[in-house]
Structures
1.
Amino acid sequence: MVVHTQARNCGLVGLQIGDTQAREFFPQENPYIEIQLDDLRILCPLPPSFWQDRPEICDFRLSEWLDAKRTTGKLACGAAELTLVPTGTGSFRLLPTPPKPSLESPLPGTWMA
């Protein structure tokens, strides 16, 4: 599923999930999810507001990982698109979304100055 980074007022960067995906992939009886970030696995709490009106995941470890990806250029500095891949019940792997091909890229066999 495609998710987006979202800056929070407290200086943390979290993930915006979306209402439909929150209902489809995150059962309400599970107040925590496990997210794999490269070699790190973290448990993130899902408050009741996650299913009501704010389907966001916000955790300081997630925020630090996202900031590190931005610093190294592996993630856009502004709002970024990521892929959250289900790996089991209540567990996911977070990956940068591959860049989309640019419509302005040169055609094969052409030369740009």
2.
Amino acid sequence: MKMIHVDSTNVEAVGYDEDSSTLQVEFKNGTMYQYFDVQEDVFIGLRDADSVGGYLAARIKGAYRYSKV
């Protein structure tokens, strides 16, 4: 999955797979999570957010199934 660097104090990069609707988030500490059944517009919102961490907390965490990679 192609990862895109984001300007964030906590998140290093984000990526999205259209075929499986999977969002991948890599944190600066090296941990990586995949969130499942995420709509593409949610990924775009995360990628373009003024606060990536804030968007992640408000719109993604707790709303989607996830797995630590």
